[in-house]
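W.,

You were right to be curious about this one. When I first looked at the sequence I had no strong expectations either way, so I just let the prediction run and decided to look at it fresh. Below is the sequence, 188 residues in total, followed by the output.
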Amino acid sequence: MRVLKAEESRDAARRPRHRVRPAEKRDLPRLLAMMRELARFERYIRSFAVTEQDLEERAFGLDAQCRVTVAEDAATGDPVGYAVTVLTPFTYDLKPTVTLKELYVREEARSRGAGRALFRAVAAEALEAGAGRLKWDVLAGNRRAETFYRALGARRVRKWIPYAMDERALEALSFRQPEPAEEEPSSG
């Protein structure tokens, strides 16, 4: 067994544990596996419908709808996490908004710098796009994520309350459904 000298040990400690890079098509099977892990954690696995083909079209197609960044173990090259972002071209200040849709790090790689490395890459992406802000949601009750984001300098936004409509609500509201008849005012 080889014994590391003190300076070799310090050099090893300084080397990054993770590399971050844009995802490539070759990452699709592992990305999809991690997306399923996230779906299990966030308890929507039964509704998870993404296939490799879907992900390929949406992340790498001619009209790509998102950007995917991968964190990989620097020693093995194995993906240990990913981030998915989407860009809204402009809003009130004519600057883009980058929305972090998913940030996931495998359990065995947590608290080892992969999440921070991914988040730094997303921040750089936002700045390169000229974004005025980066937004994301945190699963209610995920205190570990909240602590992580606060440690990076993020703050909870209390000005806005998120709302959503599922497919059924969209159908009910859309032009596909006849407008309900308005009641006649009662005369009396």
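Here's what jumped out at me. The CA atoms of residues 170 and 176 lie 10 Å apart. And, maybe more interesting for your project: The mean pLDDT is 88.

Coffee later to discuss?

I.
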